[in-house]
Amino acid sequence: MTPKYTTILFDADGTLLDFDKAEEMALKKTFSDHGFPLNAAITARYQQINNQLWSDFEQGLIEKQQILKRRFTQLFAELNIPYDGYAFNNEYLVNVGNGFYTIPGAEEICQALQPYCRLYFSTNGNVATQLNRIAGSGLKKYFLDTFVSEAAGEPKPSSVFFDYCFAHIPDLDKHKTLIIGDSLFSDIKGGKDAGIATCWFNPHGKSADLTVVPDYEIRTLAEIQQIVF
């Protein structure tokens, strides 16, 4: 088989790695270790705070360090928990790094593509955390390299991130390069701005954004084979 795309950039969290499950495990363990209360309402509020901070970061409004310092600090202030939110965040990251869960079909699609395509991870996040999770997931053997925003200097969708990726891929042909991810902003907008094909992994059928139109949209990872071959 001759693939239409010979270089594929895979997002990690929400695409191949199950971050929701890793986050749930890490929150439960870290809160439990300290005897702090945790319920559905507290978890939802944390996610609101965290998602807003990440959105601000991806838009260049804050530095990455502000996410790490502020997300639990703000939550603890609202909950009247007298504990250092930044120290708690560091413990939480260790626990997230031990969340080796994958999205259904992740290993199967990597196994199918690897003989024909060069596979790379392209992910926003902390280098140590992401590398540990990727190694523990069992997917690392299918990939030639992993590009993490912390090392690149800026997150997806920044051109700095994609330039960093492209500089580390030998003999790159953008016309034969595809990015696959679950974020219309980080992955799809970033990929389109960088001049490569884009595939939106949308397993939950989220509403599309008319301002960011992917080249492809899929519900399951198995559908990638129909795009690549």
Give a description of the structure:
The chain is an alpha/beta fold. It has two domains: 7-18 and 102-228, 3-Layer(aba) Sandwich (Rossmann fold); 20-96, DNA polymerase, domain 1 (Orthogonal Bundle). Helices cover 48% and strands 12% of the residues. The protein has ten helices and six strands; from the N terminus they run βαααααβαβααβαββα. Strands 3-2-1-4-5-6 form a six-stranded parallel beta sheet, sandwiched between helices. α9 links the parallel β4 (177-181) and β5 (197-201). The longest helix has 19 residues, at 40-58. The chain is globular, with a radius of gyration of 18 Å. The model has no long low-confidence stretch (mean pLDDT 95).
Q: What is shown here, in short?
A:
By secondary structure, the chain is an alpha/beta fold.
What are the key terms here?
229 residues, alpha/beta, DNA polymerase, domain 1, 2 domains, 10 helices, 6 strands, globular
The description of the largest β-sheet is:
6 strands, parallel
What percent of residues adopt helix (DSSP H or I)? Answer: 40-55%
* Fraction of residues in β-strands: 5-15%
What is the correct CATH architecture of the largest domain?
Answer: 3-Layer(aba) Sandwich
List the secondary-structure elements in sequence, H or E. EHHHHHEHEHHEHEEH
Q: Could you say which structural class the secondary elements and strand pairing correspond to?
A: alpha/beta
Number of domain units: 2
The radius of gyration is: 18 Å
Q: Which regions are unreliable across 5 or more consecutive residues at pLDDT < 50?
A: none
Gap from first CA to last CA = 7 Å
What is the CATH topology classification name of the largest domain?
Answer: Rossmann fold
CATH superfamily of the largest domain: HAD superfamily/HAD-like
Principal-axis shape equals globular
**For the residues shown, what is the average pLDDT?**
95
* Count of distinct strands: 6
Task: Kindly report the spatial arrangement of strands forming the biggest sheet.
Answer: 3-2-1-4-5-6
